[in-house]
Design brief:
single chain; 193 residues; mainly beta; five-stranded antiparallel sheet; 2 helices; 11 strands
């Protein structure tokens, strides 16, 4: 079987393409169960990767586990934070993606300190809303963890006073798109305990 039997092409993107992220929702890993739609061929058959696994197209639903805490929302200043994906290919032919976010929380304060400290002590899943109004799931497969955090007051008046945080998960796929028609329902489900 060819490694690219399910490869599809695409055209050059038109219109605006904005950087940064607007919001992020985060909850305990395994606090939610997600449902997916899968890539299909012209005969409405699921497309399989070279290992025989169905290829996830998008997240279509979510259920918050009984007794689980509601997910929480973080917002960011314009052009301050980003979603990231990096692919690693090993010599043995295997590969994985490190999906995550580099986040900047302006103004050091005790409320943020406590929230970040709680996030640092656990394993999470997260949904990211980018500036192109697309929602992405990170940590549906493997837990997201805080890998770095720094805080600085800055020195001069124009310096940043902020927390800088990196969250990441090693997964077999890139971040998974959440169907726009289902995104608000999914977020409401996860943020209401």
């Amino acid at each position: 079987m060819a490694c690219v039997s399910y490869l599809t092409g695409f055209s050059t993107s038109c219109g605006s393409n904005l950087p940064s992220i607007k919001k992020l929702w985060i909850g305990a890993f395994e606090s939610a169960t997600f449902t997916y739609s899968y890539q299909q061929d012209g005969d409405s058959q699921d497309v399989l990767d070279v290992d025989g696994n169905k290829i996830i197209e998008s997240v279509t639903g979510a259920t918050l586990a009984t007794g689980a805490d509601a997910w929480v929302e973080f917002q960011f200043r314009k052009n301050s934070s980003e979603m990231t994906t990096e692919m690693t290919v090993n010599d043995n032919g295997s590969h994985y993606y490190t999906n995550g976010a580099n986040l900047v929380f302006a103004k050091i304060d005790n409320t943020k300190r406590l929230a970040l400290q709680a996030t640092a002590s656990g394993e999470c899943s997260m949904i990211v809303l980018d500036s192109n109004n697309q929602y992405w799931l990170i940590g549906g497969e493997n837990a997201v963890s805080m890998t770095t955090m720094s805080a600085t007051t800055g020195v001069a008046v124009g310096d940043s006073n902020a927390y800088n945080v990196t969250l990441s998960a090693e997964e077999s796929t890139m971040p998974i798109l959440i169907s726009a028609t289902n995104a608000q329902t999914i977020i409401t489900t996860l943020t209401t305990a």
